[in-house]
Amino acid sequence: MNDRLDIEQKLLALLIAESPDASPFLTEILSSTDDFDWERFAALVERHRVGALVYAGLQQFSAINPPGDLVRHFSGKTSENAEYYMRAVKLASELMEAFSKQGIACASLKGVGIAAEYYAAPSQRQMIDVDLLVAPDRYAEAEQIVAAHGFELFYPDFDLTEQSRETFMALHNAFTFIRKSDGMQLDLHWRMVPNPSLMPWIDQLWSQSVVGTTIGGQTIPMLPAAMHCVYICVHGAKSGWVRLKWLADVDHVVRGLSDQEAGEAAEIFASDDLQRIGAVSLALAERVLGTPIPAAFADLMQHDVSDLIDLELGMMFEDMPSRPHSLKDWAHYRDRFRHSVLLKSGGGYRRHALLRELARPRDLATISVKPGRFWVLGVLSPILGMGRALKRLVAAKP
């Protein structure tokens, strides 16, 4: 694996690990005489959203001396994160209290809970939104509560008919809302991840498992530690770990699990047939960040996931696809398709995974597709995408 990471990437991995002294790159970085490309390093930090973690890591290594303006920039991220965290705790508490009064089951995902429970300081974890999960059969009521708190629909950013809304919800897992008065962003989930066959056991049982957790003086419903650990592994893996922030979450959470919680997490991985996802998430965290693997995960780590690790290391550090997407992004999508298919098998997972890689929910703005026939979008979206790319290519020619 070391050959797959250059010096800037290794430095980044060293600095964001919860225990840098356990990093596999510690000796190499501290003894390196190579000149760091600090501009490229800064771009990596920004892309992976780990500026505050990098700043915390730099405090432990006086031998590493980035340019002063870069250090100040990373320090500024810490202050920004602290402010957003406090606002996020307040928002999550207000909304979830409102949901609770109406008897709507809810839970906070990632974000404030992970930052508060597992990081040395919540300000070390960057957040751009608040993720809340509500019971799918009460989703419309939850939307009304969100609107009453000043939020407007941000994505999907097109008008939804009753049919397109139902189709969108079959393909996706959340609507995104924004409150213009203060810029707060909210992802309101009806399902944890887009693919319903990825975590069917957790999706069915989460509302019976929620625990009230005191965060910032507020009581916020959270998933229990073992279930949350599994969720963050699934969340990062389904996206190919394209942001190291998610792998840092795994590093921090796994280190924070009790032996009992680790054992419960291992059972959940098995219950939802998520052994490959669990194995690759833990193996990647161990190899990149030096995460110690609890004994309860020993059986899980016997799974051969070298094929997934190779794909994930590539997606983790390659250039992100352009916006809007162009034909030159084909290799990224080839790898992403292959990676998605390899994560799990059985239960209709692969069929659903391929569909969600091909179908572009935004195309529902121009194509009317019935919920029971949303596979049609999987056929038409790539055609429409190539058409848009070709149109831009022609328009760009002098």
Written description of the protein model:
With 398 residues, the chain is α+β, with helices and mostly antiparallel strands. It folds into 3 domains: 1-66, no CATH class; 90-223, Beta Polymerase, domain 2 (2-Layer Sandwich), CATH 3.30.460.40; 224-319. Helix content is 55%, strand content 9%. The protein contains 17 helices and 7 strands. The protein has a 5-stranded mixed β-sheet, with helices on one face. It has a two-stranded antiparallel ribbon with strand order 6-7. Strand 4 and strand 5 form a beta hairpin. It starts with 6 loop residues before the first helix and ends with a helix. The model has no long low-confidence stretch (mean pLDDT 90).
Record the SSE blueprint.
Blueprint: H1 7-16, H2 26-31, H3 38-48, H4 51-58, H5 68-101, E1 106-109, H6 111-118, E2 130-134, H7 139-148, E3 152-155, H8 162-171, E4 174-179, E5 184-189, H9 200-209, E6 211-215, E7 218-222, H10 225-238, H11 244-256, H12 259-271, H13 275-289, H14 306-317, H15 330-342, H16 349-358, H17 375-396
Parallel strand pairs: 2-5
Antiparallel strand pairs: 1-2, 3-4, 4-5, 6-7
Helix pairs in contact: 1-3, 1-4, 4-5, 10-11, 10-12, 10-13, 11-13, 14-15, 15-16, 16-17
